[in-house]
Amino acid sequence: MTERYFSMLENGKRTPSAKLLGRIASELGVPVASLLSEDAPEAPKPQLTTAPDVARALMSYGSSGSAPAAGPSELRERVEAAWRVWQSSAERFSEIEPALPDLIVDVEKSVRAHRLATDATARRDVLRTAADLYGLLRSYCRRSGRLDLALMVADRARRAAEDADDPIRIAAANWNLGHCLLSQEDGAQEAEDIAQLAVRELESVPEARRTRRCAEPSNSSA
């Protein structure tokens, strides 16, 4: 179809066939009805399918109990197992949801327990694990329709990575935060700002420190 013919369609000088309307709508990614009305099509509302227990755990509604905080190695194994399910299972939502509430509570409890710990290595390991869990939760919440929770856990991931002084995880957390912003209306500029900040921060990290702090691989989706 020539530009001239398309212009004639836009100006009402030609009437497109039903087949042509369908092709134009398909190319534009809109329903055919939107081409036949002067009213803007109503944006589809996302379905909020995040499991209630997961949302409650993230909002700290659940009780952490009196049991001692889990150790860094145990938490690392559990978070890595959750990542394996998320990355490989065809039924990842139904498989991972039962494990997430307790995992969220236990990781946050361990982060609090190690906040003032004298063992710097254990504290850093717990914070790295927290950053990786929040990275997984960012993907889970975003894909299950809760962009508000996705933004919250993306911010938690960045804070945990910063507290762990882990440049690679900081970069991954900024990448995740940028994707959350891109999912929101008019969020492109904010996402660009986050990306540029992340690049500047990563470029300012000496190579020796980058290697030292990031010896343990991250399961983040970056």
UniProtKB/TrEMBL annotation:
Superkingdom of the source species: Bacteria
CDD domains, per the entry: HTH_XRE (cd00093)
InterPro entries noted in UniProt: Cro/C1-type_HTH, Lambda_DNA-bd_dom_sf, TPR-like_helical_dom_sf
HTH cro/C1-type domain ranges (all copies): 1-35
The protein, known as: HTH cro/C1-type domain-containing protein
Organism: Streptomyces sodiiphilus
